[in-house]
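> call design_seq(struct)
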């Protein structure tokens, strides 16, 4: 077969570019990133046949591409979200553990968010749902690249409500009278009601959890419609409250033994279906929708926790503790992922490429025709060729930081190289039975072959040929990764606390209730709140 002429090569290149070139009012695609909270890999029916509550997500997978070896960048809330929005691990962006309701800081201000890059590229940007990257002063979403924000500034168990929903242990409702009515309860926030923000204004305190999913869906649809009417491409970051506790049953059955988790999962699925419908109605084929999760299930919540699928972390469970959220076992960071973009991303496709939430930042930046921020290194890759089905080029190495289970938070404790996974430190988070797995350091590391042992049950024998063959490659990759991080422009987050940072609609009322009074507003210019907030 002869060598093609230069003209033929040029024509082929133009055709290929035409197949994937972004379409939209400005030649740029719209982006919707839906991030579920504490969702298990097995919570998606397309992943796990036992799950029956996700018909809309399963349809999304049938019309798009499902990624079955997809990982969150950390296995707890704030670090995972910071990595998604910066494309950098917590050891680079500074966010290594969760922020509190009293946190003064947040995602370091010298870190550039995906929203800031896309805003500069002409996008209308919106964030709806959980933020958890700092709410005080300039750490609020409106100061981090989002034109519009509607949601709760942290996890929805970090404040009391009048209808607390289902949690373990159960938490009391917000107090309505004086201090005598307040009930202290371990692991429950009883002093300050959960706030709901629209931009910088508290519009409800406490939040009505039962209607939250409907409000998120309505605000998302409204944002999509307004952006479309304005003729601008949009980026919507929708960070759901589902499947984090407290859960609630939108249609409670008289039988007290009803499946609360399943009912809440069905509600999340319906919400995703509404978002897809809204996106399709404003130009099907113009919008890339990326659904995934921030980390695995919160196992200590027992029947209120999600489904791991086959990723049970058997080695750890035999020694006590959970192998899900907060850990570096597969159940902690392997999450469901579906990408839907009619006409661009192949339908009915399953990819086994090793990908991460870290890849969302550089991929969307590339598709928008924008440039990555300078003077820093990124852990994520532009995986658009994988999305389009052109290539299975994937991460050669993926790093897994400790997210609170054992050892120093943020430290790289596990490493993935092809089908091999090495642990330098192991430990279990709190399990349903109250046990925790002690931290154990491994030198040489434990190494599992995930192709043969997806349950992470039996590490390779250190004396085996396979172990001896792969150990030098793993050791080299680990050393190179640590050297790269040490040479990078690394940020440091401010984790200091001050009660004055707590969002409060009216400090004169018990639990900061609004009681129909004018809503409190944050003042970003002075990083102080108006007198209507707790000071």
């Amino acid at each position: 077969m002869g060598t093609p002429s230069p003209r033929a090569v040029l024509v082929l290149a133009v055709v290929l570019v035409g197949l994937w070139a972004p379409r939209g009012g400005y030649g740029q695609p719209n982006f919707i990133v839906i991030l579920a909270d504490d969702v298990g890999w097995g919570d998606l029916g397309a992943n796990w046949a036992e799950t029956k509550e996700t018909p809309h997500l399963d349809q999304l997978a049938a019309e798009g591409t499902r990624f079955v070896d997809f990982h969150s960048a950390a296995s707890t809330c704030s670090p995972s979200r910071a990595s998604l929005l910066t494309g950098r691990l917590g050891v680079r962006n500074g966010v290594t553990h969760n922020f509190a309701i009293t946190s003064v800081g947040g995602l370091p201000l010298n870190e550039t968010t995906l929203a800031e890059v896309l805003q500069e590229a002409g996008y209308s940007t919106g964030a709806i749902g959980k933020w958890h990257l700092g709410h005080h002063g300039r750490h609020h979403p409106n100061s981090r690249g989002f034109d519009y924000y509607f949601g709760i500034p942290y996890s929805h168990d970090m404040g009391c409500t009048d209808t607390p929903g289902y949690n373990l242990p159960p938490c009391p409702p917000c107090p309505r009278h004086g201090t005598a009515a307040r009930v202290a309860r371990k692991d429950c926030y009883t002093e300050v009601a959960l706030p709901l923000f629209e931009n910088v204004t508290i519009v409800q305190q406490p939040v009505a959890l039962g209607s939250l999913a409907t409000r998120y869906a309505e605000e998302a649809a409204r944002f999509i419609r307004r952006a479309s009417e304005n003729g601008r491409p949009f980026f919507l970051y929708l960070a759901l409250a589902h499947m984090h506790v407290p859960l609630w049953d939108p249609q409670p059955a008289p039988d007290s033994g009803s499946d609360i988790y399943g009912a809440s999962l069905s509600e999340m699925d319906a919400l995703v279906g509404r978002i897809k419908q809204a996106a399709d109605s404003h130009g099907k084929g113009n919008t890339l929708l990326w659904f995934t999760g921030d980390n695995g299930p919160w196992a200590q919540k027992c029947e209120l926790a999600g489904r791991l699928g086959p990723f049970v972390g058997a080695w750890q469970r035999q020694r006590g503790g959970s192998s899900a959220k907060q850990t570096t076992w597969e159940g902690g960071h392997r999450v469901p992922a579906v990408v839907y973009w009619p006409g661009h991303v192949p339908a009915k496709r399953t990819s086994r490429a090793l990908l991460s939430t870290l890849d969302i930042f550089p991929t969307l930046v590339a598709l928008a025709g924008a440039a990555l921020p300078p003077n820093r290194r990124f852990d994520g890759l532009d995986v658009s060729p994988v999305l389009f089905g052109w290539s299975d080029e994937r991460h050669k190495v993926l790093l897994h930081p400790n997210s609170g289970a054992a050892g120093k938070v943020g430290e790289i404790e596990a490493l993935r190289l092809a089908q091999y996974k090495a642990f330098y430190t192991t430990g279990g988070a709190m399990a349903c039975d109250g046990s925790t797995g002690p931290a154990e350091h491994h030198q040489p590391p434990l190494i599992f072959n995930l192709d043969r042992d997806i349950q992470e049950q039996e590490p390779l024998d250190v004396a085996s040929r396979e172990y001896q063959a792969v150990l030098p490659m793993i050791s080299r990759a680990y050393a190179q990764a640590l050297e790269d991080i040490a040479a990078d422009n690394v940020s440091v987050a401010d984790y200091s606390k001050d009660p004055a940072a707590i969002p409060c609609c009216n400090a004169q009322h018990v639990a900061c209730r609004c009681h129909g009074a004018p809503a409190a507003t944050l003042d970003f210019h002075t990083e102080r709140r108006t007198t209507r907030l707790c000071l």
